[in-house]
Design brief:
The complex is a heterodimer of chains A (213) and B (112). Chain A has 213 residues and is mainly β. Chain A has 3 helices and 12 strands. Chain A is globular. In chain B, strand 1 and strand 2 form a beta hairpin. The termini of chain B are far apart.
Amino acid sequence: MSQHKFLLARKKGMTQIFREDGTVIPVTVVEAGPCTVTGLRTPDQDTYSAVQVGFVPAKDKHVAKPQRVAAEKAGVPAFRRLREFRVQDTAPWEVGQEIKADVFEEGDVVDVAGITKGRGFAGTIKAHNFSRGSETHGCMNVRRPGSIGACAYPGRVFKGTRMAKHLGAVRRTVKNLTVEGVDLERNLILIRGGIPGPPNGFLEIRTAKTGSN
Amino acid sequence: MDKIIQEFDKRNMKEDLPSFKVGDFVKVEYLIHEGKDDRVQPFVGQVIKYSGHGVRRTFTVRRIVQGEGVERTFPVHSPKVVNVTVRRGPNKKPRRSRLFFLRDRAGKAAQL
């Protein structure tokens, strides 16, 4: 298994770059790291192996006491964002170690997870791609969902029937995106294509689980 | 737009842009890959629009080939757009920024 790479990041927005042959590539610019290893999970102690990393240094007042005390014990500063990444073996990492944008390089295939933009309580047209009623012929169905089931049999609405719902603001992972460039000086990574979430949204980037690397 | 992106884009933009306006008749020198060699292919016509901002800015050139209108859109900052030279300006300064009305005209009426 190739070395598992991961990083916490913040989405900055999209733009485009030119390849030398003139091809235009749509990229998302991501402010990635520097992250600090704040803890290790080992099979002996925790029944699994993982590396906990922190991103965005935080003032004490912004950190809850359990996290603050844990950071003090580990001898690392407190962070706004903490995440664990599962690894096969924690040996290559140690607490306090810094992980920077250069763990990734151009051509790497990555999965990126983020919280999608929240759309609020959305009707069936926005949420499930339903059609609206006719605009003419006296139709009063403006954005109604239409029928949600039959009559006495089954006498109920089936589970999972598509209805209006709270849309967005859920964690989504986009798989197999290509890293198009890394700028260590400015802590930037360019990732081809779109990434979930608003600008400044929090992201987890890791080596693709299924893609070819 | 985010400052980081603006700054990033600046590094991907050309510094000395050829200056030409909507309505100008221009010669666009465009690199094309032919067999092993790169060769410059000119496209001569009239600029009918600018679109977009920053690195994404593009312009469209219209010309008449064998009685048929042909339009091509080039990214301003593309490395393949080697040079743009202004052949001559418009006879009459255009009053709008996008000259789409030329598409409906033919022959002498299409001159500006």
